Amino acid sequence: MSQIFTVAELNSRIRERLNGDPRLHDLWARGELSNVVNHRSGHRYFTLKDQDSQLSCVLFRSFALNLGFQLQDGQNVLVYGDVDVYRPRGQVQLVARGIKLDDGIGRRQRELELLKARLAEEGLFAAERKRRLPAYPERIGIVTSPDGAALRDVLKILGSYPARIVLSPALVQGENAAGSVARALEALQGRADVVIVCRGGGSVEDLWPFNSEAVARAIFRSDSPVVSAIGHETDVTIADFVADVRAPTPTAAAEMVVPDLEALAAVLRTAERRLVRSLENCLDRPRTRLSYLERSLSGRRMEALALECRQRIDYLGERLTTAEEELIEEHRRRIRMAEGQLSSVSPLATLSRGYAMVRSDDGSLLTRAEDARTGERILVVMAGGRLGCRVEDRELL
Amino acid sequence: MTVESELSLEEAMEELERIVGALEAGKIPLEESLELFERGVRLIRICNQRLEKAEQRIECLTGDLPADLCK
Lengths: 397, 71
Fold this sequence. Notes:
The structure holds 2 protein chains of 2 kinds. Helices cover 43% and strands 22% of the residues of chain A. By secondary structure, chain A is of the alpha/beta class. In chain A, the strands form 3 sheets. In chain A, strands 1-2-3-5-4 form a 5-stranded mixed barrel. Chain A starts with 6 loop residues before the first helix and ends in a 7-residue tail after the last strand. By secondary structure, chain B is mainly alpha-helical. Helices cover 56% and strands 6% of the residues of chain B. Chain B has helices at residues 9-25, 30-52; one strand spanning 57-60. Chains A and B meet through helix 4, strand 7 and helix 10 of A and helix 1, helix 2 and strand 1 of B.
């Protein structure tokens, strides 16, 4: 068995340890006063506490005299002193040598409210200016600490979505963080379709750079939409107000920025099904019409049609023949009529009635007695022949 | 019409949506429907190819990429 301590020895050991750590000496601590005891010895005992923790403190009489104000429960203070162990009780405590009232938090809050009001008036928080995130970004910018968990969370969600990821590293806490984040955002101009600004959880102090004007303006000037994911769900900073979209965590930010790959694959599968189905429908209409027409063009129908045609041809043929005959008959009739008319005016008919036609020697027709000369030879054409005669005498009427 | 391989994922998805909508409306003549169908199928293939490439490409604007992120 190794050394067995007495309690005193143990406490001494602890004290030695604490005394040997320079960081635990000449330090400032911030917290709220509670359990203030103004001892009759003149020493002041109190507990210094904040959200997560508390520490017993003592302000000895000599220092208390210089205090200048009364210690009261609830006061926000800054305490200057050293950490020590009160050995008799084994109690770690902060031995204070000076205390001042901390309006730091109060002052900081006031400044924050003023800044918020000013930026709001300039329109940095306006809902109308918030831009929609691209559905299928090709370049995704990330402003964050290259060593932090936030970056790795984001990369995990982005997974194998086919986009170029552009990391613009920045300090995300400390007094240089505001400028660093602003510069990192500026560096992404023209290089991303959407930007995620993120960091993991931390104290109000840690997140304070994201309440700065520099970061707010840099986000406002960004040429692509900005998604902010600063701290935990309940942490809200000015950066969140200016951003186009606020995400509760870096993981959520990444989910907002890329489409779900599974969902996309499903959409593509559905699209394929819809394409095939609508093409089938497209083909169905002509197919139906085709089979209807097919039925209409059946063999029997064709025969019926052919028979119909034949009958029509026959019928027309008959009519044609009849018409032909009638036409010929008509012609014949007209010829006969003409013949009749002709014969009635034919000179031959006249001759047969006893008239004669007289021609001179040269063959020309003599129609007037005065045209004939006595002694001239004339021809008398009668029914049945002609007579060669000489004019013996002439008597004009 | 742009060659499918030159389209961005966004352009391909949007055109695909338009084609599916147009074919489902059913007012397009058969020959053109066939052409649109083929284009749609090619677009689907391109999109799937793009999504299946399981490589995360990350670059760092200033300084070096942390070691654990370099593949």
